[in-house]
């Protein structure tokens, strides 16, 4: 078979030398990461104080009342799911009210008015919230923001906002760690003060979230999460999704197969699913064995595990989303060629009344148009 090397100067040990060219210093450690590559949670600014305060609230209240916001993507779902299950392990009596966005909103912008009326003992905002200080300052309870997004220069951090963010922590080296990984580190810190080891149960969800948000594979810590998490899948819903896509995945559970076959199903339901389907999705992630009534044709009313029901809905949502995307892209392609828009250096498409689609599909459609342009240019 004829091959053409991308880097002709590399004539031997291609894989090892390619990794070195990409900035990997210790190839052996990168390929076989051990527990030592997991950064210390102590490198995250304020986590000492935040974790102990978080545990104190749980311990001091007989029946803590917590608000939890689930951000609208795979990383947001897994971040919230880890947090929910972890709190229930620390204090089972805790009442957790989960807010799920209607569309692809993020943070507190669309739910501020609703949540402000609640008398929470604390509000938790995983995978979002860093730049929501203007909203957070109005709450009377402490607001724990466990995030990985960049902080705007002009955003404020009010007194009741407890920010844990790798981007604002100079000592934390892995800036590619996403929301689910940050929540995992937060839970490790609480474990330290509580003398428990609950966090390790959720490394599979942390790995899924990091993969879903496309955290860089060049970071050895991310490799650690993927290799350990995908070899130790405990979450029943995650297992169910893998079973649904086992043939396509070729029996391999790794960052590539998960990114191509698992994450798109979850994101599709978050984009185009109904409110009830999104609620079942979260329930499936935190309590997959719970029984719900099936909505499948011919089996309506039959009790099934919510993990099975939600997995079926994820498959349907992905099919529906793809069909929608293809129809819209065809209409936009017609506009592009009708007005000879490819002659422009920057592609602008004016949408008329005949071309309407949910804003949640904006990114998918834009990416598809970019891919189509690559085949034309």
Keywords:
377 residues; two-stranded antiparallel ribbon; 48% helix; globular
State which percent range the strand residues make up.
Answer: 5-15%
Strand order of the largest sheet: 2-1-3-4-5
- The rounded distance between the terminal residues' Cα atoms is 29 Å
Please state the average pLDDT score: 88
Q: Please provide the ordered H/E string of secondary-structure elements.
A: HHHEHEHEHEEHHHHHHHEEHH
> What's the count of strands?
7
Shape: globular
Structural class by helix and strand composition? alpha/beta
Question: Radius of gyration over alpha carbons?
Answer: 22 Å
Proportion of helical residues: 40-55%
Low-confidence stretches: none
Question: What is the makeup of the main sheet?
Answer: 5 strands, parallel
Q: Please report the number of helical segments.
A: 15
Task: Outline the fold blueprint.
Blueprint: H1 14-21, H2 27-31, H3 47-60, E1 65-70, H4 74-90, E2 95-100, H5 112-116, E3 122-126, H6 133-136, E4 143-147, E5 161-165, H7 179-194, H8 203-212, H9 220-230, H10 236-244, H11 246-249, H12 255-272, H13 275-286, E6 291-293, E7 303-305, H14 306-338, H15 362-376
């Amino acid at each position: 078979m004829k091959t053409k090397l991308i880097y002709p100067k590399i004539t031997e040990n291609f894989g090892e030398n390619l990794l070195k060219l990409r900035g990997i210093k210790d190839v052996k450690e990168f390929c076989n990461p051990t527990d030592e590559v997991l950064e210390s949670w102590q490198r995250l600014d304020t986590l000492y104080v935040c974790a102990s305060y978080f545990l104190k609230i749980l311990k001091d209240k007989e029946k803590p009342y917590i608000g939890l916001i689930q951000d609208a993507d795979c990383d947001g779902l897994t971040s919230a799911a880890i947090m929910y299950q972890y709190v229930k392990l620390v204090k089972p009596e805790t009442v957790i009210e989960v807010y799920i966005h209607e569309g692809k909103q993020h943070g507190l912008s669309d739910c501020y008015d609703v949540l402000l009326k609640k008398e929470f003992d604390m509000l938790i905002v995983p995978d979002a919230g860093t730049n929501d200080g203007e909203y957070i300052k109005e709450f009377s309870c402490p607001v724990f923001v466990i995030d990985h997004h960049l902080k705007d220069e002009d955003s404020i951090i009010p007194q009741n906002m407890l920010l844990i963010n790798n981007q604002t922590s100079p000592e934390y080296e892995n800036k590619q760690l996403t929301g689910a990984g940050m929540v995992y580190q937060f839970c490790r810190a609480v474990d330290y003060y509580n003398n428990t080891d609950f966090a390790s149960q959720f490394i599979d969800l942390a790995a899924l979230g990091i993969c879903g948000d496309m955290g860089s594979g060049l970071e050895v810590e991310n490799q650690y999460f993927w290799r350990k998490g995908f070899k130790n899948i405990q979450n029943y819903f995650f297992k169910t999704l893998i079973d649904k896509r086992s043939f396509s995945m070729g029996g391999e559970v790794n960052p590539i197969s998960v990114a191509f076959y698992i994450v798109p199903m979850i994101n599709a339901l978050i984009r185009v699913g109904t409110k009830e389907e999104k609620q079942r999705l979260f329930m499936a992630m935190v309590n997959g064995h719970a029984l719900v009534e099936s909505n499948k044709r011919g089996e309506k009313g039959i009790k099934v595990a919510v993990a099975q029901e939600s997995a079926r809905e994820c498959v349907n949502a992905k099919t529906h989303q793809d069909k929608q995307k293809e129809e819209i892209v065809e209409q936009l392609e017609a506009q592009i060629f009708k007005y000879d828009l490819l002659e422009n250096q920057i592609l602008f498409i004016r949408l008329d009344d005949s071309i309407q689609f949910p804003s949640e599909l904006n990114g998918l459609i834009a990416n598809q148009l970019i891919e189509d342009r690559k085949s034309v240019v």
